[in-house]
Amino acid sequence: MVVGESGLGKTTLINSLFQRDLHSQQHLSNAAQEQLYSSIKIEPSTINIEECGVKVRLTIINTPGYGDSINCTDNYKSILNYIDNQFELFFNAESGLNRRNISDNRVHCLFYFISSLARGLKPLDIECMKALHHKVNIIPIIAKADALTSDELIQMKQNIIEQMHGHHIQIYQIPDCDADEDEELKEKNIQLKSCLPFAIISSTQCFEAKGKQIYGRIYPWGLIDIENSNHSDFLKLRNMLIIHMQDLQQVTHEFHYENYRLEKLQLKKYDEPQRKLLQEKDNELRRMQDLLCKVQGQLAEKL
C-alpha cells in the first residue's frame, strides 16, 4: 500500500521498483487526477511478477485523495478500515471448513511518503502513522529527495526519527541476519537499517550513459541515476523488499493479524452471554407462540 499526499511520486516509485506501468496515467497526470477526488479512495490492483526466479502475486493499493481535502484529519480512517476488512476476510476464511486455499489479501507493507519540503513530519503524518502502526508494517519514505542537499537530508532523517520516537510511532524493524549468513549480506543489511527513512529519487525514464541503459532524471547540471546510492536510497529500498519479503509477511501474520484475531475472539467471548440471553428469550417467545396457537386451536374445536 502506498500512502501520501498528491504529487509526491507514489505511482512513479511503484513503476520504477518493478520497471513496468502498474498504474496507467491515462489522460491526466497522477497529481492532477488525484486533485479531482473530494475524498480518499482505495484502489487495489493485482499483477504477477517474477523476482530472482520466484513468481509473486503482488497487489498494489493506491490511495488517491489522501491529504487533499481541506479537513483531512480523518483520512486515515478509510485506510484503517481497508486494512481491518482484509483481516476480517482472512479471519472468516481461516475459520471456515476449506482452509487449504485461503487467499491472503492482507496488507503486508505500507510505504508512507513524507514531503521533502516539510523538513520533518507534518501533524497529518503523525496522526496517520500513529493510527496505523499497530496494524501494518510502515516503511517511511522521504519523497523527491533531490530537492535536498546532503546536509539537509541528513538533518531531515534525524528530525523524522526523533519525531517518531517522541510520538511512539513504530515502523517496520529490519531484522538482523542469522549468525551463519554471508558477510556481504550482513553488511548490506546493516546499510539498510542505517538509511531509514529511505530517501528516494524515482523515474521511469530510461537514458543511455557510459554505454549502459539507466533509469534517471535529467537536470541542467547533469543526469542522476536513481540506483546511484550517493543520490538515492532507491536500490536499498528494492533490496530490502526482496531480502525481507518473507519477514514482512511473517510479521503481518504473527503480530498485526494476531493482535486483530485476539481482539476479535475477546469481543466474541464478551458477546457470548448476551447472545445466549437473546437465544433464551427467543426460545421462550417461540414456546409462548406455540402454546397460544394450541389454545386457539382447542377453543376453535369446542366452538
Largest sheet: 4 strands, parallel
CATH architectural name = 3-Layer(aba) Sandwich
Cα-atom radius of gyration:
26 Å
What fold name goes in the CATH topology slot? Rossmann fold
Per DSSP E runs of 2 or more residues, the count of β-strands stands at 9
The share of residues in helices is 40-55%
Write down the overall geometry: elongated
Structural class: alpha/beta
CATH homologous superfamily designation: P-loop containing nucleotide triphosphate hydrolases
Which sequence of strands runs across the widest sheet?
1-4-5-6
Can you tell me the number of structural domains?
1
What is the level 1 CATH name?
Alpha Beta
Helical stretch tally: 8
Ends distance: 74 Å
GO cellular component, one term: cleavage furrow
GO molecular function: GTP binding
Protein name: Septin-type G domain-containing protein
Domain Septin-type G: 1-267
